[in-house]
Design goal:
Bound molecules: pyridoxal-5'-phosphate
CATH architecture of the largest domain: 3-Layer(aba) Sandwich
Helix content: 25-40%
Distance between the termini: 26 Å
Radius of gyration: 21 Å
Strand order of the largest sheet: 2-10-9-8-5-3-4
CATH superfamily of the largest domain: Type I PLP-dependent aspartate aminotransferase-like (Major domain)
Number of helices: 9
Shape: globular
Number of strands: 14
Largest sheet: 7 strands, mixed
Length: about 350
């Protein structure tokens, strides 16, 4: 049976990226060594790193004055590195979900944190509007896509202070005006590559704002001086990211990918909105194109487990909602084909016609 991979992360990757990585693990470009056996100081790896950085810059149209680096430690280490490097007195944060809360928790180790707005009172079912960013904040931190709750900030906002964004789960899903941000970061394992590598797009002039001493590995300056090569970078994971970036370029770039994502999301959201049984959990203007959360209406709540079992017989994988929302979550990342969304919609409609 055909499997439909809706996992939230690590998640589906382009098939061609997986196949080419498998080949490179056996023999990288015919050099007689595995990708896993080469030195990170070799010209073979330098070529991989250069191409990955180059494609990232090209596809996201990253302007001059920005660098892209690849680190270990996951997005979660960035929650700490950001305030370590940039929080002098006060930072502003938008609280839109669990990942934002984790970022806030780390910032509090370093200074005052001003949470400008929160949707926690509504179980994070929306992106707050009408908030004021204090002009004296060292930076403002947002999570553009809330992977667990399924809400997303779709526009690049104007911000009076340096804007920092966790784009772990929507990077490369749409064109981004990078010039509006001072730093963009994320774990690769949602939309870009395997677990193990973190990307950081950083504006060079953001550096050295704080007096405190910063341990070498947690200092962005270390990683900018020798881009991604101060210590051994995650060679394997970077390789797969390069393959994913090549795939995006082959499709025609992030605008093409965005159009595909909109089609997929519209198909599923329309099915949810036209259903007697299912209902979306997020306010319409805050809905994510990457993680689509829905539950069963009150009168059908007792059928959720039955639908979960039914969906498995149709090849659906990873659609169980996060425990903090319940119900279902379909992650529709870049690499998920439209046919998988169609298959899920068919399964929902078949179940509904048998049970509602
Ligand atoms: C998954 C995720 C994280 C955590 O990433 P790690 O690489 O596991 O540390 C942080 N932020 C968002 C938005 C995520 O989706």
């Amino acid at each position: 049976m055909k499997k439909h991979n809706f996992n939230a992360g690590p998640s589906i990757l382009p098939r061609i990226a997986v196949e080419n990585t498998a080949k490179a693990v056996l023999d990288l470009n015919g050099i007689g060594l595995s990708l896993l056996e080469i030195s990170h100081r070799s010209k073979d790896f330098q070529a991989i790193l250069d191409e990955t950085m180059g494609l990232f810059k090209e596809l996201l149209n990253i302007p001059a004055g920005y660098q892209i680096i690849f680190l270990g430690g996951g997005a979660s280490t960035q929650f700490c590195m950001i305030p370590y490097n940039f929080l002098n007195k006060k930072a502003a944060y938008l609280e839109t979900g669990v990942w934002a809360q984790k970022a806030i928790k780390e910032a509090k180790f370093f200074g005052e944190v001003n949470v400008v707005a929160s949707s926690s009172d509504k179980n994070f079912n929306n992106i707050p509007k009408n908030f004021t960013i204090p002009a004296d904040a060292d930076y403002f931190h947002i999570t553009t896509n809330n992977t667990i709750y399924g809400s997303e900030i779709h526009e690049d906002m104007d911000c009076p202070v340096p804007l920092i964004a966790d784009m772990s789960s929507d990077i490369l899903s749409r064109p981004v005006d990078v010039s509006k941000y001072s730093l963009i970061y994320g774990g690769a394992q949602k939309n870009l590559g395997p677990a193990g590598v973190t990307f950081v797009i950083i504006k060079e002039d953001l550096l050295t704002r704080v007096e405190r001493k910063i341990p070498t590995m947690l200092n962005y300056a270390t990683h900018l001086k020798e881009p991604s090569l101060y210590n051994t970078p995650p060679v394997f994971a970077i390789y797969t990211c390069m393959e994913t970036l090549r795939w995006i370029k082959g499709l025609g770039g992030v605008k093409v990918v965005q159009d595909m994502n909109i089609r997929k999301a519209n198909l599923l959201y329309d099915a949810i909105d036209n259903s007697k049984m299912f209902v979306g959990t997020v306010e319409k203007d805050s809905r994510s194109l990457m993680n689509i959360c829905f539950v069963m209406k009150e009168q059908y709540k007792d059928k959720e487990d039955a639908f979960m079992e039914f969906s498995k017989t149709k090849g659906m994988l990873g659609i169980k909602g996060h425990r903090s929302v319940g119900g279902f979550r379909a992650s529709t990342y870049n690499a998920l084909p439209l046919e998988s969304v169609k298959a899920l919609v068919d399964a929902m409609q078949e179940f509904e016609s048998n049970n509602a």
